[in-house]
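FW: tagging you since you asked about this chain on Friday. Here's the raw sequence from the shared folder, copied in full. Didn't touch anything.
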Amino acid sequence: RKGVVEQTRRHLAVAALLGVRHLVLAVNKMDLVGFDESVFSAIAADFARAAQRLGVGAYTVIPVSALAGDNVVEPSESMPWYAGPTLLEHLETVPVGIDPSGQLARFPVQYVVRSADYRGYAGQLASGVLRVGDDVVVLPSGLRSTVVGIDAFENSFDVAYAPQSVTVRLADELDVGRGDLLVRPGEEPRIVREFDATVFQLSDRPLHAGDRVLVKHTTRVVKAVVDRVNYCLDIETLAHDSSAKSLVLNEIGGVTLRVAAPVAVDDYAVDRLTGSFLVIDEHDGQTLAAGLVGDPIASGVLEHSAADSASS
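HL: got it, structure written out here
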């Protein structure tokens, strides 16, 4: 009855910024408008305009009434004008897999496993593939070595694929610890002490310029300062309000962060794990915001994601 409201637009913006490849608009409670096709068509058109502004090209719109299960599992007899898939049918058939071999290798070290004759680095392979014999660079130190073993519980492997959790053994005894990142030479992310990001404010506590915070990036936690609040995103128009001095609950905006120790980051458009982070209150550990490195709208990640979805 209310159509596409601000919350719908906010959820669409968040999904688009995160690069979600397939979106479903489930237009629920169609029974409240007598299963009127014209009401559904108007909502779908309004959503289409918002999606176009965000660069989202792949989405499916399904009219449903959860009260009696119309178009949830079985096609609805009350909406014979709709010939598309039911919600469950679409969710069960939409392709969502990603081929790890097409991604850059990113292995954040979570724990160092030591014994008298064993030294390995445990963690979850966040993206890509690692093989025994691969040359690797340890970041942020820049130390180099070669993978000589990949272990998991009682088994050893020649290759690991994201998102496997494994222990990696290196040819050299290096100073590697929690928060370090193993990557292949030539595929290194940027090592930064300052970076721009898009953040989603999750806390009732506003985020101000000058705030001292913690940044949790992969398995690394560093002290940081919010150097600037660059803009607040207008959900209706997608315009950047550069007069904003802070971000409040549910707002999306751009900030510049300065970190006390070097951090290895990719733009979110390149790698979702090394391109994302959390902003945490250094006093009580409360999560203040979730962030994406770079500006996904300006960098074209939305258009790229839409093209990927269309091709898949």
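FW: The chain has a mean pLDDT of 90.
HL: agreed, and DSSP finds five helices and 21 strands in the chain.
FW: great, closing this out.
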